[in-house]
Each structure stands twice: as structure tokens, then as C-alpha cells.
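can u do me a favor
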């Protein structure tokens, strides 16, 4: 019961905080924050506590495959929105995610997933840099129901993923862990409110943060059995944050 309360409390609070940060400091920061392994960290923590360490370790390869599929989905969305409207682009991107995640989970492996994810991250960073730059003076219209809807969506997906874990198995549960439940609403709303410039900034930030997510999962795989869930998740999150900040700073200077 305590874990249930944690899920219902922590997830919406994180979504609320990231949404406010994106409003205050822009889509790039929102993308960076949503790209960090926040949802993934929560899922892996609850999987370890509820299903055991071995189950969580078995979910890591699937999670990295899911991460590669997420990056492919962003690339699909960016390209699709150049040809079709927002709603068809979202549907196409989600369909593409399902196909890509299935392919990585069933025919890929950890090394393939990491390699493909890094290549796609590079493509997204390069592509987003060629999109229009956000107008820092423009003030997009914010609707009162946006943040509550994001909070409910994030919490619902976390509940579904962890509740069905024993039935789905570690591979599929891992694949669902990196689903961008926080980043997707942020990106779509940024696109609606700020146009392609806002969307591109969100995608760029999320792609940079995804490098930290890869480091997070590799650290979990290496440390979980030796250190336990608490220390492992803490160290993996610190590593992800430091790597993301360093990469963002390097790209800003470039």
C-alpha cells in the first residue's frame, strides 16, 4: 500500500515541477528535464521493490531497446510534421514506436539498442538545430487543464506498467519503462503553443537527456546486484544528471 501511495504522489509532482520549469525557462530546459531518467527511474525502482532484483535486471535490455525506439519516434514525429498535421503525425509516431519497440525487443540486443539510440540522438540534435529558434519574447497561451492532464497521464502509465509487470514479463516491462510519458505531452503542447521552434527545442533537450538515460540503465545493470536498489538508483541518477549537464554545456559552446 505504501508503494501505491508513492506512485500516486511522486509521479504527478514530478510532472508538475517539470511543466512549470518548462513554462518559466523554456522548452529546451523542459526537454532536458523530461529527457532525464525520471519515469524510468521510478519504474525500475518499483519493479525492483515489487518483482525483485533479478526481474529489474532482466528489464534493462528491453528498456534500452525501448529508449532507441523512443528516439526513432521523435525522429519520425519531426519528419512527419513537415508533411502532415499534428494529429496524424502523433498517430504515425506512436505507431512507429510500437513497431520499433517490438523490433528492438525481439530481434535486437543491448549493444544494438545502445548504438542505434546514440546514432538517433546525434541525428535529433543535428536536425533540431536546423529548425527555427524559439522567440524568447513570445508568450504562448497556457490552458488551465494542461498540467493536470499531463499529471494524470504520467501517473496512469506508471500504474499500468508496474501493475502489469508480472504478467508482461521483464522484457516488455523494460520496453515500456522509457516511454516518454512526461516528454510526449510536453513536446506536443510545445508544438501547439510555440510552433516548430518550441517543438524542436523540446526534442533537442530530450535527445541530450537521453544520453544520461543510457548511462542510467548501464549503471543499473552493473551495480544493482552489488549495491542494492537504493544506492544503485541514486548513483545512476547522479551519473545521468552529470552527463546530461556536461553534454548540454558542451553543445551550447559548440
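np, heres the sequence
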Amino acid at each position: 500500500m505504501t508503494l501505491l501511495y508513492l506512485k500516486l504522489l511522486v509521479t504527478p509532482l514530478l510532472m508538475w515541477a517539470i511543466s512549470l520549469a518548462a513554462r518559466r525557462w523554456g522548452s529546451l530546459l523542459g526537454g532536458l528535464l523530461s529527457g532525464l531518467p525520471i519515469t524510468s527511474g521510478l519504474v525500475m525502482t518499483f519493479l525492483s521493490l515489487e518483482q525483485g532484483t533479478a526481474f529489474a535486471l532482466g528489464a534493462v535490455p528491453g528498456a534500452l531497446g525501448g529508449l532507441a525506439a523512443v528516439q526513432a519516434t521523435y525522429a519520425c514525429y519531426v519528419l512527419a510534421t513537415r508533411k502532415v498535421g499534428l494529429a496524424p503525425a502523433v498517430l504515425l509516431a506512436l505507431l512507429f514506436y510500437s513497431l520499433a519497440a517490438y523490433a528492438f525487443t525481439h530481434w535486437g540486443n543491448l549493444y544494438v539498442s545502445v548504438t542505434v539510440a546514440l546514432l538517433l540522438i546525434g541525428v535529433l540534435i543535428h536536425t533540431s538545430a536546423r529548425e527555427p529558434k524559439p522567440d524568447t519574447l513570445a508568450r504562448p497561451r497556457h490552458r488551465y487543464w494542461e498540467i493536470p492532464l499531463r499529471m494524470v497521464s504520467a501517473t496512469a502509465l506508471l500504474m499500468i506498467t508496474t501493475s502489469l509487470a508480472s504478467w508482461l514479463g521483464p522484457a516488455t516491462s523494460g520496453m515500456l519503462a522509457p516511454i516518454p510519458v512526461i516528454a510526449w505531452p510536453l513536446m506536443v503542447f510545445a508544438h501547439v503553443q510555440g510552433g516548430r521552434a518550441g517543438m524542436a527545442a523540446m526534442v533537442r533537450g530530450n535527445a541530450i537527456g537521453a544520453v544520461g538515460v543510457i548511462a542510467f540503465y548501464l549503471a543499473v545493470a552493473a551495480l544493482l546486484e552489488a549495491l542494492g536498489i537504493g544506492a544503485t538508483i541514486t548513483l545512476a541518477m547522479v551519473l545521468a544528471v552529470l552527463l546530461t549537464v556536461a553534454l548540454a554545456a558542451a553543445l551550447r559552446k559548440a
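The radius of gyration is 17 Å. hope that helps!!
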